Every structure is written in C-alpha cells, then in structure tokens.
Amino acid sequence: MITTIGLYILYAVLTLIVLRKIIIRLRLSKAKHPSLAGHSKMARRIAKLVPYYEIDEKRFFNSDGAPANIAELRRSGFEKLSKLFIEKSPNTIKHSESLEDFVPDVVFTNNYRVPFQYSNYVKTHLKLGNMVDASSGTQIKDLDGNWSYDLAGSYGVNVFGYDFYKACMEKAWERVKELGPVLGPYHPVIVENATKLKAISGLDEVSFHMSGTEAVMQAVRLARYHTGKSHLVRFCGAYHGWWDGVQPGIGNTRVTNDVYTLKEMDNDTLRVLRTRNDIACVLINPLQAMHPNANAPGDSLLIASGRKAHYDREAYANWLQELRQVCDERGIVFIMDEIFVGFRLAYGGAQEYFDVKADMVTYGKTLGGGLPVGVVCGKHQLMKRFKDKRPVEICFARGTFNSHPYVMAAMNEFLHRIEEPEIRDSYQQIDELWNKRVNCLNDKLVENDLPVRIVNIASILTVLYTRPSRYNWMFQYYLRAQGLSISWIGSGRFIMSHNYTEEDIDVVIQRVVAAGIAMQQDGWWWQSPKLTNKSIKKQIMWEMIASIFKSK
Ligand SMILES: Cc1ncc(COP(=O)(O)O)c(C=O)c1O
C-alpha cells in the first residue's frame, strides 16, 4: 500500500517536472519571431533548398508582366545608365574589375547588390566602380576625378566627416611615431583613453580589441564565465558581427546550440527571460529600434516592396528599461552593443540616449578615430578574467594588435575632439535636425508622387517603397547616377555624417528626388492592379519551382 502511494507521488512529481519542461519549451517557441529570421535553423535548411535561377535578358525588363512599351523604356533607361557609368568612370571600373577574380569580398558584394535572379545580368551589363582615392567634406572621389556625396558612411565609422578622422590619424601618427608598432608594452596614451571610456560608459573597466566582432566575442565569453550559464539571447534580425556565436542563421555553417534568437519588444521574450535558468546574457543592438525583428535591409532581399521600418524612441526606451529590470531580477548580463550607434546618438551613446544602464557595453567603428578597433566596457565583477579561488579556471582573451599605439593615439584624439562644446551641443538637437531633414525629403518625394519614403533613427536612414514592384533595387543605380555614393547593400541604409550642412542636404534631397523621377520615367515602377506584393512573391515561388523541374 505504502509503495503504491509512493509510486503515485513519484509519477505525479515526474509528470509535473515534464509538464513544466514542456511549458518552458513552449514559452521559448512562443518568444520566437514567426519570420524565418526568428528561426535560424529552419532558415538554414530552407536556404539549402532555394535553387539558383536567372532572369535572363528576354525577361529581365518585364519579369513583372509589364507590357512591351514599358519593357522598352526600362531597357533604354538601363542602357543609358550603363553608358553613363562607363563614360564617367572608366578607370575606376577597370581597376575595380581587376579584383573580381581573386578578392572574394569584391566577388561577393558584386553578386549580392541585387536579388540573385537579376544579379548576373546586372553584373555583366551595369558595371560599377568601387575605388576611391580622396575624401573631403561630405564627398569622396573616384579614380576618374568624380566627386560624389557619401551616403555609405564607411559602415558607420564616419560620424563626424572624413576630415575629422584624417586629423585624428595625423595627430596620432605625430604622437606615437617615436614608438612605432611596439606591442605588449603600452603607450601611456592608453591611460587617458581607458579613463575617459570609463566615464562615458559609466562602467568600471575597459578592454581593447581589434574589431567590433572581437569585442562582442569577449563580452559574451565573460558573461558566460561569470554567470556559469550557457546561453546568450540575441534579438531577431540584430547584427553583432560575423562571429558564428552571434550569427546562428544563414551565413554561418556551424550549428550554434547556445543562442536563443527571440522577438524584440515583446512580452513573450520577457517571460522567457523570467523563467529560464540557462541565460547568461542579453545582447542588444539599439540600431534595431528602427526595424525591430527585421534583418539589415539589403537590396539583395528587395524582391517586392515589403521592407518595413518605423522608429519610436520612447517605445524602444521603455522596452530597454523593461528588459533591464528583468535582467536585474534574474542575474542576466545586459550587454548593449553600441558598435554601430555609439557616439552617433549621444555623447554617452545609446545608454544616455535611451536612458538605460548596461552591465557591459561594446564600442567600435568610429571610436578608433579612423583606425580599426573594438572596445568592451563593463562592471568590475564581469570584466575579471580569473577567479581568486580557482586559479586555473581563467577566461582567456588576447589579440596581437589590441591596444596598438596608433589606434590608441587616434582614439585619444577622437575622445578629446568629441568633448568640444560644438560636438557636445550638437547631440542635443540630433533627432530634431535629422527628422527635419528626412521630413523635408519625404515631402519632396510625396510632391513628386514617387513611391519612396525614408525612415530614420537620427542620421541613419532607410528607404521604403510604397507601391508593389519587383524592381525597387534599381533605385540604387539611379542614386549612383546622381553622384550619390551608397554601400553595396544599396538603398537599405544611408549612413550620414554629421558634417552635412543644410546646403549639402539640399543637394542630396534634389538628387534623391531626381533619381526617383528618372526611375519613374524609365518605367521601373509600372503599376497594374494584378501586381501586389503577394502576387510577386507567388510568382517568384513559381519561378523557383519551374527552375527545379528545368534542372532535372
Ligand atoms: C552592432 C554591431 N556589432 C558588431 C559589429 C561588428 O563590428 P566589426 O565589423 O568591426 O567586426 C557591427 C558591425 O557592423 C555592428 O554593427
């Protein structure tokens, strides 16, 4: 009798344990974003199934079912662009082409400027140069002497204008040239850098690395080391460098079993953080405030007009504060990855701008004063790389070039310059200024009945398309034709430097509008009641299926 009761109790306990596990697992599933970006493993499996197929010359100009007269307009516009690029920048194109056989970076970016179906034709017939040899003010110069406005911003490095960084680099060279590339011993300039970064971040310790990716690696490694927990939480769509530990989806072949990719700005995520015991840290990229849960908006994914963005500073600040509170309750390390937005939004970075305190912050890009860098700032108890009572259980981090004297000296110049009242004050109006500029551009786009709108978080802009089209990615070429230099991801991101004057902005606005008008006149935004985002996606699905049968 007693053994039977005991067995019942055991069963009941086991059932409760299993039920609890199921509930926790279900909670995790619920906290994943329904898009493929929220399901890394599935995205990778699907990526393996997507077949290559090409839209050749016969269909290139009417793959959306446009009539012959529109296809002709498009063809003539395409040929005009092609001629213009070749005539304007023959040397630049020739030099850029010379890298195409043996620099995989170039081969890759050339291939992924536009959706893969169109890539071969575009690559062959719409040659672009990607070499420059001078910068000044807000412009850069190609090898043929053409100056263009820089909307690419050197991946976010260029916050204050290239001349600012040239000065930092020059001063740096002057300051440490006697030492040269001595590594191991430090140049004394490092003391002031670490002290200033402590003050800016409000954290206790600082470590120097060579890239943003490495800074993130180190922050996550330390969080796991000190919490003794295995998992990192990153948010759907957020980029934190190319280390596979933060890139569990497409782009990385290694299976990562210690990363949870969860929905950002969502209570389901908070519930997971509150109930799981295996989470070491939460990694936040505040740039996602512009498009929570979506990947970086590259034009190679612009197959229709579904790109979305909407920025609400207050809502994002509230989200961060809620997240902060849950991390406090659960002993989860709250890491702000400010590699992109740090020193762009506020002197004290995203922490100050969104009024939230992190346990660790990573910086990079602009902080190097024009030279490569990654930095981790953190609380004393999180930054320590050994344990007093377990001398062999260390948390290793090195890097030959970390604290390189030239980088330290350029960073020092950067940190001094941003203390100047002109720069400190400029942060006060950062939203007001850039919102006004973006509103003005949007007004002009509306006035000209163009299906293009801009959304921004301060000086970081993204282009949205308001009418269904398969050809929005062509816009990047019309922008280039107007002397606007943009990065290989195309119209998804314009990174503006803060030395843009009102006159510069006026010219840029005129050119963006002129690019839109030219693209409109060349027929790329042809509309038909049958052409919807849904119908475009359906059509692409059929093309893929047809290509599978064709290849058999
Ligand atoms: C938020 C964020 N984290 C990390 C990185 C990686 O930095 P890096 O390219 O210097 O390795 C980037 C780069 O774009 C980034 O935007």
Write a short abstract of this structure:
This protein has 552 residues and is α/β, with parallel strands linked by helices.
For the biggest β-sheet, the strand order reads 4-10-9-8-7-5-6
Distance between the termini: 68 Å
Q: Structural class, from helix and strand content? A: alpha/beta
Ranges where pLDDT stays below 50 over 5 or more residues in a row are none
General form:
globular
**Could you report the average pLDDT, rounded to the nearest whole number?**
96
- How would a textbook summarize the main sheet? 7 strands, mixed
| DSSP helix fraction | 40-55%
Q: If you compute it from the alpha carbons, what radius of gyration comes out, rounded to the nearest whole angstrom? A: 26 Å
Question: How many beta-strand runs?
Answer: 14
Percent of residues in beta strands? 5-15%
Number of helices: 20
Bound molecules: pyridoxal-5'-phosphate
